[in-house]
Amino acid sequence: MKISIIGFGNMGQTYANSFLNSGFVQADSVFVLNKTEVEKKKVFGIPKENYFIVPNATFFESDIIIIAVKPQDFFELAETIQPFLSSEHIVLSVMAGISIATIEEQLSITKIVRSMPNIPTQIGEGMTVFCASQAVDRKELFIVQNLINTTGKSIYVEKETMLNAATAISGSGPAYVFYFMQAMIESAIQLGFSPSEAEFLVNQTFAGSVQLQKRSKIGNEEWIEKVASKGGTTEAALEVFSNWNMKSIIDTALKAANERAIALGGK
Fold this sequence. Notes:
The protein contains ten helices and eight strands. By secondary structure, the chain is of the alpha/beta class. It has helices spanning 10-22, 74-81, 100-107, 138-148, 162-171, 173-190, 195-215, 220-227, 233-243, 246-265; strands at residues 3-6, 30-33, 51-52, 64-67, 90-93, 112-116, 126-132, 152-156. The protein folds into two domains: 3-158, 3-Layer(aba) Sandwich (Rossmann fold); 173-265, ProC C-terminal domain-like fold. The radius of gyration is 22 Å and the shape is elongated. Strands 3-2-1-4-5-6-7-8 form an eight-stranded mixed sheet, with helices on both faces. Keywords: Amino-acid biosynthesis, Cytoplasm, NADP, Oxidoreductase, Proline biosynthesis.
């Protein structure tokens, strides 16, 4: 199998690194098209002759074409690559807000998989939600999902509109986690910990809690009950969250993110 990656920014590099580290493909089977030359330290063992600045037939001899450019650059890109694409190519898009219908129209192809990854894909712990056009058969979808899973975990959805919700939950989700972590770190410093101690304390608390939840068969509410004893410190904090309608605030925020994703996709 040969894989071609268009755009070698963070996502393009993440995919190349993950594919090669997992052994999914060999380095000489990965091709890269980037508008500027790639730094030597970022080649991941891919042969120099597999890097291109200008589209050509050799680059498009691959089975799967990954488009990892910024959405605003897609339409100009489409004009240059469309002549090289055939009905047999499978295109995997990681562009936010560019629909399957738009990709199909601009590239004159039908086998399209659209995905919404998140930033932890950079360390192989990502969450990707993806959907596909009807022209992609089950075997092809299986191959693409295995490819995506080299960067973490994935969920397939039949409705493309669910990618907007995925953007709000898992796509933007890491920022919400970092926001809450930072708030806890700042509070820990105010309570007397040094900045390094506060960061270590909060980071390990999040990491340990996530691992505990993943390895257990009980839900979040039950874990909260296990930590929060009657009249204790945890209950005091949770009462503040409840009084300020924290769940409602989170729900409102996620719905705002979802609405924004819909609006951006409509442009």
